[in-house]
Design brief:
Layout (H helix, E strand, L loop, with lengths): L2 H30 L4 E7 L1 E10 L2 E8 L4 E4 L29 H30 L1 E2 L6 E4 L4 H5 L6 E5 L2 E2 L3 H9 L6 E7 L2 E7 L2 E5 L2 E5 L2 E3 L8 E4 L4 H5 L6 E5 L2 E2 L3 H11 L3 E8 L2 E8 L1 E2 L5 E2 L2 E3 L7 E2 L3 H28 L12 H15 L4 H15 L8 H15 L7 H28 L3
Length: 454
């Protein structure tokens, strides 16, 4: 399949599902309450360019490629953005959105974000039930990069991290994630070394990961012993020219035993572009293979191999309860890290450029990179991430977003205590102001996306 077609299909798959599951949430809640749905645009805002009608609802594709929408009879506040006003047909009062109780309107608005968050939970939940959950290694230091942030801080092999950033008994995942969003920021660390608690401070090294500035503490936990099987070989790298083959089991690097994939990766990077000798097992025989790593654009030395599924031995089968807990905790961790990054922005600890904010171009780039590296199966994870962000973002009290419309319902409820209400003209102005804010955000993130090219 041509590369550009693959990327287009991947973008349509991820964004199409994430956006339409959101609109379906509004649609199904409105239908359950007996509200009449005038239009459901699967793609785009504005004038209808194609579609079909079932019952009272026009299912359509619209002209402006900015998401999708559901248009309810009696809700004219966003008519200008959703292809004009209603067709004038007399609709029974009990089917009009505008005449429904505020609590029903609230649930209709909440339906979209709810479905996004439900999808974000369902994906890791299903993955946990089918494949099990990752068994996180203990926070015991296994491999340290020579001259790296951990070594500079005084961290040693076999140290157990008992406190990181003020959090007692952190998991390895918590350590890695907090370091990831704290490049070059001092983090207090307490290690247990032979029964003695030692207070240290580590500054994660500043590096780039998929175009974003992140922190790296430059050590790996002790993963124990696991087979290191070559799964794939990139033809443009040295591994392909050296005769290394998929299925080879790597035993040693430059004569040093390889216990797991992390040790091999660390050894390759530390060796840089010096000649290297890999000892592998192939068909029951040992072979010595000479190779040389090359420096990639991201500043990392690689020989061009991927690891096979035989390496993935750290997953545990779980039941429904544990899978549900894993799904919730995974999403809460994403929200926590996102909130922490925005906190760093407002406190001045992180620049906007380094915050990893992605606009339309950035999202397409990320999807394209993932589908090239991992195929369509790799898109499931990014679909969960985008769906979660879409659900949470839509709950913000910004006009035009669901959170903004919920805010307007709250204002109307407050005004009703004094016998007043918001006019349709004011509601339309609020929605247009919201559109201006959203467009400004899109232009700003688009600028950040383009600036990363330079």
């Amino acid at each position: 399949m041509p590369d550009i077609l693959l990327v287009i299909l991947a973008v349509v798959f991820v964004l199409g599902i994430a956006i339409n599951i959101h609109e379906f949430g509004h649609f199904i809640v409105a239908k359950l309450f007996g509200m009449r749905v005038e239009a459901y645009s699967f793609f785009g805002l504005g004038p209808r360019i194609w579609g079909f009608k079932i019952g009272h609802t026009d299912y359509r594709i619209s002209a402006i490629p900015l998401g999708a929408y559901v248009k309810l009879y009696g809700d004219e506040a966003t008519a200008a953005l959703e292809g004009g006003e209603s067709d004038g047909e007399k609709v029974p009062d009990e089917e009009l959105y505008e005449l429904r109780p505020r609590w029903q309107k609230f649930l209709v608005m909440l339906g979209g974000p709810f479905m996004n968050i439900a999808l974000a939970l369902a994906i890791p939940f299903g993955g946990a039930l089918i494949y099990g959950v990752p068994s996180m290694p203990a926070p015991v230091v296994g491999v340290i990069k020579a001259g790296g942030a951990a070594e500079v801080a005084g961290i040693q092999k076999n140290d157990r991290i008992v406190s990181f950033g003020g959090i007692e008994n952190p998991t390895w995942e918590r350590i890695r994630n907090d370091a990831l969003i704290s490049p070059e920021q001092p983090i207090p660390v307490t290690v247990d070394r032979g029964g003695q608690r030692i207070e240290l401070t580590v500054k994660p090294a500043k590096t780039e990961q998929k175009g974003n500035v992140v922190g790296d503490i430059e050590f790996q936990p002790d993963m124990g012993v696991e087979p290191v099987i070559v799964g794939s070989i990139k033809p443009e790298y040295a591994a392909a020219q050296s005769g290394l083959q998929a299925g080879d089991k790597v035993l040693a690097f430059n004569g040093q035993t390889v216990r797991n994939r992390d040790e091999l990766t660390t050894q390759i990077r530390a060796n840089k572009d010096a000649p290297a000798k890999l000892t592998v097992e192939r068909g029951g025989e040992r072979k010595e293979i000479q190779t040389t790593a090359k420096l990639d654009d991201d500043g990392i030395y690689r020989i061009g191999i991927g690891f096979g599924t035989e390496n993935i031995t750290t997953r545990e089968k779980v039941g429904v309860g544990t899978a549900a807990s894993y799904a919730v905790n995974t999403n809460l961790e994403i929200i926590r890290l996102t909130g922490k990054v925005f906190g760093q922005l407002f406190s001045g600890q992180r620049s906007v450029k380094d915050a990893g904010l992605a606009g339309p171009v950035g999202i397409v780039q990320l999807i394209a990179q993932i589908v090239r590296e991992a195929g369509f199966a790799g898109l499931v994870g990014i679909l969960a991430l985008i769906s979660l962000n879409l659900g949470v973002f839509n709950l913000l009290p910004i006009p035009l977003l669901d959170g903004g419309q919920i805010m307007v319902l709250g204002i109307e409820k407050f005004m009703s205590f004094f016998g007043k209400t918001l006019s349709m003209a004011i509601k339309e102005k609020i929605q247009l102001a919201g559109l201006a804010i959203i467009l400004l955000l899109m232009v700003f993130t688009l600028f950040l996306d383009i600036s990363r090219f330079f």
